[in-house]
Batch of 4 targets.
Target 1
Amino acid sequence: MKTTTHSKNYSVIIVMLCLFMFNIANAQPKPPTGFEWKEVPELTDEFNRWDRSKWQKPLWNYGVPVQMIARNSGVTDGKLWIKSSLDNSSQRWFQTSRVMSNAQIKFPFYTESKILNSNISAYNTFWLNNGNINNRDEIDVIENNSNPSCGCQPNFPWQMNSQYFHVVNGDTKRNTGNFDNRKLPANNPGRGVRWNQGYHVFGVLMLDSRNIQFYLDGVPAGKVRSARDFTRNMNIIWDLWTADFSWLGGLARKNNLNNDAINTMYVDWVHTYKLVEAGLSVEEDNLKTISMYPSPAKDILNIKELEENTDILIYDYTGRRLLETKANANITTINVSNLPTGAYFVKVE
């Protein structure tokens, strides 16, 4: 059978340093010349209704006293909500819920969500994950506690608890990028506003397999670098939970759980974007997988799975072409030792 191959451009980010300006008007980091952010509809929602095609309620539990139940989350009046309630008859007396995307995403992406935290001693979360306790890729954009009960976390009402976990066969790599919103620029309306006193926009930018930049109200807000490559497509998740640990801020007080004025976290919206070459749709950009390693590259970059004589072009973040070569039949090896540390884009034609 004879097959016909249509020529297209594919762009993949291989190394990253934080060189992006934040464009508040467009609500996502400004893309480099020749690239653009394309909205991912499956991971974007204004929450005008509960959309089963986008969201599900996985009800696996954290430790005691958490009990996940479906009725403690939903969509009302243009808001996704997750609430706590009290079940004094059970050891798992902290009733709550979880909402997770059906679709998944991996780098290069940017996602952000506008959230109002509850005012109980519990983690209000917005995170991405794929895997289990022993093997997973996880990015916690926030694990915020607006009202710690332990008396040991005085900064939690303003501290954006953000981190990553990368776990392989039980071996955990982790680093935190916690940011205090009192350090926002003086003209930023979110500066000094407690998590339960106003909506904040929390975001995360991941352009390559290791570098993770968090955002708060349009401003870079801490970054972490993974010790290993992220390889998994991840789901977006929100949940609300508590535990009797000082690192969480202490256990929720039972008398707060049925107080509807303080027991609920609200999500106004979520917006998610993939970085693609200008003019391509997200679907077109994902048509072909190109294997490149190592990432980040220091001296040598190897590219696999290209046809012989395919054009390979390397650009910096301004769109300036720095290197041009052609692919070999099997593995193409490119010397990048003369390139300064930074973010580069490989264009394959």
Target 2
Amino acid sequence: MSDLITRPWPFELETLRTGLAAAHAYERRYGPLTANPFSRARFTLARNTPGTPATRAAFFITSSATGAILEVILRHAAPDQSGGIYVAPGALAGWSIAFLELRQDIPQVLRVDRPHRLRFVEPDSLGDDVWHQLCGTPVHALTHGAAHEVNGFLPGHGIQHAGLGWRSRQWPDDVVRVLYDPPFAAGAWHHRNSVDLDSKAGLALVQTAVLDAGWRWLAPPHDATATAEVPEP
């Protein structure tokens, strides 16, 4: 499998345990427990042609609301010279954060960040470096091929993996996981509640994420050139 998996099978995969708390940033048109078949984010199983459904739809979870907001909503935020961040209300329109709790174990999630990836690649090898680059590149299209290669390798050994996991590029205290459908099932999760990010409570969550990241919150009005742009989901 090129240089992406070099240690012999079998190697250990992660199990998400019952009771795991997670946050999920989503466009409200999809709902809080709907996998997105058109996501082209990191490590999705997107096809080469935009607008074509992925091989398996994607559902992203993070360890915290701060992680979800920094990964999705503020991924392109540009602080001003004093470290201030302004988020235009329109950038939050239609977005929500769901707070979830896992009802049952989800096995077969492959962690591709260090040290976990050393289960399947040699340390300080080309494969180790490739995965390092893929976990951090802002060009998500470069990660899709690796996701497809894993998706081809594991079924050859009788495994339908549930997803991939890695440390957040935007918020390293957090772990991001993309869960694939199948086997993703909405019934595996308890939807505790959702907060609309364009509400007062949602804006408070965004402000907390900005402060957690070490930036200063800039309340409107402000120079529109500092406005965060929200990427495609």
Target 3
Amino acid sequence: MNDLILKFQQIPKLLLGFIIVVLILLVLVYRDPPTTVCDIQMTEVKKRLVKGFYQDDERGQYESGVMTAFNKCMKTNSPGGCYDIFRRFDYFEKQIQSVPNQCGTDDSALFVRKALIKALKLMIQIAWGEKPPVNRYNKTSWLDASDIGLFCRLKRQFERLYGEAQWKSFAQSLIPKLPEATTLPRKDQWDLSMFSYSCLGVY
């Protein structure tokens, strides 16, 4: 201990002062990291999503917000039961259009990825149903043109922010979990799911 104190005393005062300043700056940066462009963008997106997505516009109650709407859709699996959550996901998609491509994989945008996956997973599961579609022409189930348009817009946002490779990885992880999917050849699994839906010209 005495040797350490002696060594500190031998350091020139100017150099010692510089070292102390650097150490203080490092501690400050660690405790409060500098704000990045992505941090700023995500903060603004979150503010816009509070009303219209997470919460209920009229009552302002989270319990009456996105989770209630999501669970209702899962339970009823019908156009009427899913109307509210689809409306919220449509609003969500419009808000994340402003997210820069490079911010998709940033930690500050993790909530965007989670919500996108949840929305797409829900729509893919709805289209698939409790058993595989009869054929590839029936793979959209009761989803109408506006619902399919929403699916395609969400898919485009996913591919824009995370790339086509991540989209395929998402498909490979979800398809085997769809009811009775593993009883089918892999090509049929893909062809009968919404993953294979061509979104060309769909908005």
Target 4
Amino acid sequence: MVATWDQRTQAEHDRLRSALLQRWLPAVASYSPYWGERFGRASLDPAAVSSLTELRKLPPIREADIAGAGGVGSPALLMRPKEDEVKAMAAGNVILEIARGIRRAGMEGKRLTLLQEYKPIHLHRGGRDDELAIGYSRSDLDRLHRAGARSASVLGLGDTDYMISAVPASAALDYWGIYHLALGSSMLALHPRSVGEHVDRVVEAFALVPTTVVAVPVDEAVELAAVLVESGAQLARVRTVLTVGTPPTSDERIRIRDAWRAAGASEAVRVLAAWAPPEARALWAECPAGVADDGSSTGLHLFPDLQVVELLDPTTGRSVEADGDLTYTSAGWHGTALVRYQTGDYVERLTTQPCPGCQRTVPRLVGEVVPAAWQPAVLSDGEYYRADLRGGAIVLQSTPGVDLWRIEVAAPPARKKTERVIVQVAGALGDDARQELASSLEIGLGVAPTAVDVVAHEALEMTIDEVGGVFADTR
């Protein structure tokens, strides 16, 4: 018998991932011309991909690649199968549901089953600037509820809890992830805050339910506690503060915990985190047993049968075990497909070792998380533009004569409104080659570099050592 989702051995996780990829990838390549073309260019048969090793033969993609394939919202990523494609490629459980639909209602039953499995009926916005539309079919929403129930279980929450969410209602994963976490766990939840409203909009909700859980954006958690002190809200039953967004550092977690204790929450109140990249389908969460008194955490627990997560070196695209670009494959989902999507989010470490806190065997993201680490917003003439440092790296590494390089985003000079993107290289580059490199970098970075300087090898090596890498944001 296969163990529950969070107690399987690594060998079981590997077998299930293999079966999932072999069912899902052929459908993705068949149902979406965009993905079919990518597999074709890589000379890769999606039906032969049954391991991470095989999956890594498909080059990763970035947001700029997707936006270019279909414009804002990227409809190229939606899975829109024809009936004959479904018959040839769908997994056995889908074929079985279609057969049941035909028995119940003939051709109308088949049509309704296909709609439930594949037609997007819900969207959330992804990408660094909300320019990607991530679609969900009806069956995807069932998966989302299941993922929400899992996150609630990891957090130690259930149907006896009462949640008030201060996460603003929006078309973003943060809001929908919390909404479906509550639905999946059958807890009673209120979501009283709209986009643009101050965090104090939620205060009145505390008089309506005996609140045990508060979900709040991480950067507003201390402020909300202070607002509730002034309101006189009764918080003695609050035992979990769920911070939504980039997981707090140890010091931040302690400040949040102390603020809520001072506001009247239970002395045993726990500060836990829920986060995922904006293109993901469900929020990942921490376990209470994995958060220590000093604010450290054993990390965010993933769903290995609902997605494939990797870390890649942002400069080469090669797989790494630590300090990498979080790369996401939405395995098993039917509305929108993402395969080896480099999110641009820095993650310190990905581990498959059992959690020392709760003993769950699922993979975990451990340590620091920095969203959009390699996609900083750069101010130019009073407007912000998104730079992709990874695109600059690709250009520099493929340029003859460049032996060593670094890219820095620096603050503007005094009284200026334009931040600087400075590229330093060491190697044999003449003036003409440097100008040509600057033109190529503008395409790779998405913004024009302020300067391309040729410097001595020794000086550049020293600078890279000082900043801790080839990328630096010194603003």
